[in-house]
Specification:
mainly alpha; Arc Repressor Mutant, subunit A; Tetracycline Repressor, domain 2; 2 domains; 10 helices; 72% helix; Tet_transcr_reg_TetR-rel_C_sf
């Protein structure tokens, strides 16, 4: 059909629908985070999450997926500090580390980032530790493996500065940082032993410098 002369054809504006979908997704993630940490993974149903977030169950599945995918999304957003998963190399602190020429300062930047990340990630670690579901263990194992891969990149970056202690190779640096930057280690000192998060961050940077840097 030809347009009526003088009539302007309207373009469909999907921005409102996208904003509503994003608002629903944020509400779903927040509801899931609250329920998982309060009740545990097994005791939280997808219906519970839908009810808490104020959306239909079908909307939960469409926005995030099934329960394992939802838990993974919570972990990813805790790692990135945003409401979306962000690849490690695209995160601001990683780019700052790569741009910094001094090895000690690189480690300070990373320690600060680890403190901020684990303050978000620690409650989810407690969920994972009490969950018996294989899919939850797989999520946590995958995160640990990714950390190990990323630590080799950091270790090589430190070695390239020429400021690493003699006799320490990339593998040892990567393993030391991987072990001490884990959410489990953070929880031992901050949650179990009551260290303030600021003390943990300062101690971590200082310990890495003492162990690794000339």
């Amino acid at each position: 059909m030809s347009p009526v002369p003088g009539q302007v054809k309207r373009r469909y504006d999907a921005s409102g629908r996208r904003e509503a979908a994003e608002a629903n997704r944020r509400a779903i993630l927040e509801a899931a985070r609250e329920l998982f940490t309060a009740r545990g993974y097994a005791a939280t149903t997808m219906n519970d999450i839908a009810e808490r977030s104020g959306v239909a169950l079908d909307t939960v599945y469409a926005a995030v997926g099934r329960k394992p995918a939802l838990f993974l999304e919570l972990v990813e957003t805790a790692l990135s500090g945003t409401d979306r998963a962000v690849p490690a190399r695209q995160r601001g602190y990683v780019q700052a580390i790569r741009a910094e020429p001094d090895a000690g300062r690189k480690l300070e930047i990373y320690a600060q980032a680890i403190g901020e990340i684990h303050s978000r990630l620690a409650p989810l670690l407690r969920v994972a530790q009490t969950a018996t579901h294989p899919e939850v263990r797989e999520v946590w194992q995958d995160i640990a493996h990714r950390r190990a891969v990323n630590m080799r990149e950091l270790a090589q970056d430190l070695v390239d500065t020429g400021q690493v202690r003699p006799g320490i190779d990339v593998d040892e640096i990567a393993d030391v940082v991987w072990a001490t930057n884990s959410p489990e280690f953070y929880c031992l000192l901050v949650e179990d032993r009551g260290w303030p998060a600021e003390r943990f961050t300062a101690w971590l940077a200082d310990t890495w410098r003492r162990l690794l840097i000339v």
